[in-house]
Design brief:
It is a single chain. This protein has 599 residues and is an alpha+beta fold. The chain has a domain of 37 residues. Helices cover 37% and strands 17% of the residues. Strand 19 and strand 20 form a beta hairpin. Helix 4 runs antiparallel to helix 5. It is globular and about 60 Å long.
Length: 599
């Protein structure tokens, strides 16, 4: 490359064509960068535990203990659901600040034999009485912000429908980790250190603040109360948590602290089996989480970039034109999502409209436009039509049956950047599971009962009563989680998801585009610096590592750029599995502590 540069420079001097040669050199540099990114990621050194190539199944999750739990199920002959549920329960033990029995989330499943896809919404929900006083609450550590946890009933409902192994076997790794202990990693130690005040007021203090000091990386953590609760659930099922002594204890603790959740509310909670949102993208079927989760944001962004030949331009991290397209699509998608997202069982949500390619065509002219202080939302209701083609065959989310009302800005969110976790799983039969699980804020509200941290879900409701995400009885608040599965010719090609609050949909979209369109190895796709646009104002968060010309383009477009250090965990923690060359390639985001396992 150096020799070619010298030759080109000499030609330029002789022909006085410095401008032309400069363009050629820029193209050469961009090409070299792209080729380097396409090189296979090593499986040793920095990627040890972060990337795996396998033939029979892969588990990608938030830490090694959880991935080991999922792999243990696959080796016992379990299904993808067995592995995913075991992984989720194990993560609840080893990442107590992010998920657990007091959390909620969403699960997307694809059955390779029946060609059937389902989405299970087990996000934490409000009770029968709305606590409007939360709108004026400044502290997020109050138990009044706890929603009815969905994780236990949701995960066990998925296992009952698609699992093969006994419940006791699936929960065994989590019980073992809680009862015998595990080694704290740096992330847990950091989260404990910033949550000292929250943890000091609970029985968890003895575990995570021994002697009044926060645990450190390398410390041995044992959670006997959690182990006992898990054993009870393994023996008696979900009712032990919702309708038994555990539920009684949780509800009484919440009621004593001013929560409006009742015993009947808690016992009546049920997760919702529903249909995923869907689109066709470059010959593939993309399935993602239904509202009030954010799969429609992922799909609209993909629809907006589908007509652009991004690889011909170069990577968005190196090329200003590709950057402008990607950032514009991401910003339009989050704007449209925020305007309409809410619980579709209670308010009208035009999922079919937002995810239609026809609607995306009406928004496409804004992709290249300069940033605006408030990008106006579109009108997807005119495109709210029944899905067709492969999306119809897969029973994608139907048109809304609830009467629409004028859109009002929502204020959905998922709390801080590190309090959600994700796992992606495939098995030997080609079945796939994508699960995102969250406590909302770190350690949720800090409420701790029988070894269980309880979520902060009710703070995800909008404070504007006119918003589709306004609080109401038995409502599920909006969140940014978006577990996603991509099919090609009826078979799973990619399983992907991410934690990270507003970073979730943008990180998923960028990963999908880099793997499918740029043909990058999943590990290399995860290493590319990311951008996260805001729907309110002209804010744009970027990781360090973009080309100087890209930063200049962002400022030219009118974005107020905030640059973070490279490989920043605030930009997500994608766990991805892709089918490449007839084999599974799994990768865990270097921004977090996740690891992958395969067989």
């Amino acid at each position: 490359m150096h020799r070619l540069s010298v030759v080109l420079s000499r030609v330029a001097r002789r022909a006085r064509l410095r401008t032309t040669i400069g363009a050629a050199l820029a193209l050469l540099t961009a090409t070299a960068h792209l080729l380097a990114a396409q090189a296979p990621a090593p499986t040793v050194g920095p990627d040890l535990g972060k990337r795996v190539v396998a033939d029979h199944g892969v588990v990608a999750a938030g830490n090694a203990y959880a991935s080991d739990a999922g792999l243990e199920m696959l080796r016992q002959g379990g299904s993808a659901i067995d592995a995913a549920v075991a992984t989720a329960f194990a993560l609840g033990v080893t990442e107590p600040m992010m998920s657990g029995l007091g959390a909620g989330g969403g699960l997307l499943y694809y059955d390779a034999k029946t060609k059937h896809a389902e989405y299970l919404d087990f996000y934490s929900a409000s009770g029968s009485i709305v606590d409007l006083g939360l709108r004026s609450t400044t502290s997020t550590a109050t138990p009044r912000g706890v929603g009815i946890p969905g994780a236990v009933r949701g995960l066990l409902a998925a296992h009952a429908r698609y699992g093969k192994l006994p419940v006791a076997a699936v929960l065994a790794p989590a019980i073992r980790l809680a009862g015998e202990g595990y080694t704290a990693n740096a992330l847990l130690a950091r989260e404990v250190a910033v949550s000292i005040e929250k943890l000091s007021a609970t029985g968890a203090k003895a575990i995570f603040l021994p002697g009044g000091k926060p645990v450190r990386a390398g410390d041995h953590i044992v959670q006997p109360e959690l182990a006992a609760t898990l054993r009870t659930i393994a023996a008696q099922g979900a009712d032990a948590f919702y309708a038994g002594a555990i539920g009684d204890h949780i509800v009484q603790t919440l009621r004593d602290a001013g929560s409006t959740i009742t015993r009947a509310d808690f016992a009546a909670y049920q997760p919702q089996w529903t249909r995923p949102v869907c689109t066709m993208y470059h010959g593939r079927v993309v399935l993602s989480a239904a509202a009030p989760q954010s799969g429609m944001q992922v799909i609209e962004a993909l629809n907006l970039v589908a007509g652009r030949d991004l690889p011909a331009l170069g990577l968005p991290s190196r090329n200003a034109d590709a950057f402008r397209v990607m950032t514009g699509a991401l910003r339009i998608a989050v704007t449209d999502r925020d305007a309409v997202v809410g619980d579709p069982s209670k308010v009208a949500v035009p999922m079919a409209g937002v995810t239609s390619t026809a609607y995306a065509a009406t928004r496409a002219s804004l992709v290249d436009a300069p940033a605006q202080p408030r990008l106006p939302a579109g009108d997807p209701w005119s495109y709210e039509k029944a899905p067709t083609g492969d999306c119809a065959v897969l029973a994608a989310a139907p048109v809304s049956t609830v009467q629409p009302r004028p859109a009002a800005p929502g204020t959905p969110g998922d709390g801080a950047m590190s309090e959600t976790t994700h796992m992606s799983v495939v098995d030997d039969a080609g079945n796939a599971v994508s699960i995102t699980n969250t406590l909302g804020l770190g350690f949720g509200t800090g409420t701790w009962v029988d070894g269980v941290f309880l979520n902060s879900a009710l703070f995800n409701f909008a404070r504007d009563a006119a918003s589709p995400n306004a609080p109401g009885p038995f409502r599920i608040p909006a969140s940014t989680i978006a577990p996603t599965i991509i099919l090609k010719d009826g078979a799973v090609e990619m399983v992907v998801g991410c934690p990270g609050s507003p970073a979730i949909p943008p990180a998923i979209v960028q990963t999908i585009v880099y793997v499918l369109d740029y043909h990058l190895d999943p590990m290399q796709a995860l290493r590319i610096p990311r951008m996260i646009p805001s729907s309110s104002g002209v804010g744009l968060r970027m990781e360090d590592g973009f080309a100087e010309g890209v930063y200049a383009e962002a400022k030219r477009l009118g974005y107020e750029v905030a640059v973070s250090p490279p490989v920043d965990m605030g930009f997500g923690g994608v766990h991805v599995i892709a089918r490449i060359g007839g084999r599974w390639v799994g990768a865990a985001d270097p921004r977090r502590d996740g690891e992958v396992r395969g067989m």
